[in-house]
From TrEMBL:
Example of a GO cellular component annotation carried by this entry: plasma membrane
UniProt GO molecular function: monoatomic cation transmembrane transporter activity
Protein name: TrkH family potassium uptake protein
Transmembrane segments: 6-27, 48-73, 114-135
Location of the protein in the cell: Cell membrane
Keywords: Cell membrane, Ion transport, Membrane, Transmembrane, Transmembrane helix, Transport
Alphabetical GO biological process terms: metal ion transport
Membrane-protein topology: Multi-pass membrane protein
Highest rank taxon of the organism: Bacteria
Organism whose genome encodes this protein: candidate division TA06 bacterium
């Protein structure tokens, strides 16, 4: 991943750091997480775990799709590297085994190329942003309207 404000995708370095600190707090005796003499809220740590879990699920799903559609003709580790590079929008590749000076993705069929493209978009936008965009707007649930009284009959 990249740092916040950067152009890279994937899990941000701050999210990864918060994830590690959250795991240390979970295992250790002190449950507090302190960064730069500031307490980190539990909701922020939960969000980091959510981002990591959704990202891991997406990368594994994409990798298995690549294995199913490209695995017979490509190296398993090369496919994993290509997927992780796409998710992080890194721009690295192991290279094509057939054509000189091109990405391994150049050898993929249309399904493999779509998987790589979706991984790049998902990695750049981020799982939390996508989850917020896909959630149905609930409105303000704290508003209570007065009881309707009408004559019927």
């Amino acid at each position: 991943g990249a740092s916040p404000g950067g152009t890279g995708g994937g899990i941000k370095t701050t999210t990864f750091n918060l994830l590690i600190m959250g795991l240390r707090a979970l295992v250790g005796s002190d449950r507090r997480i302190v960064i730069l003499k500031r307490n980190v809220s539990e909701s922020l740590v939960n969000r980091a775990f959510f981002i990591f879990t959704v990202s891991l699920f997406f990368v594994l799903l994409s990798y298995f799709l690549l294995l199913a559609t490209q695995g017979a003709i490509h190296n398993v580790m090369g496919l994993l590297f290509e997927e992780l590079s796409a998710f992080g929008t890194v721009g690295l590749s192991v290279g094509s085994s057939h054509i000189a000076n091109v990405s391994l993705s150049a050898d993929f069929n249309i399904v493999g190329k779509l998987v790589i493209m979706l991984s790049m978009v998902f990695g750049k936008i981020g799982p939390f942003s996508i989850a917020i965009a896909l959630m149905e707007y609930q409105g303000n649930r704290n508003i209570q309207y007065p009881q309707l009284k009408m004559m019927i009959g």
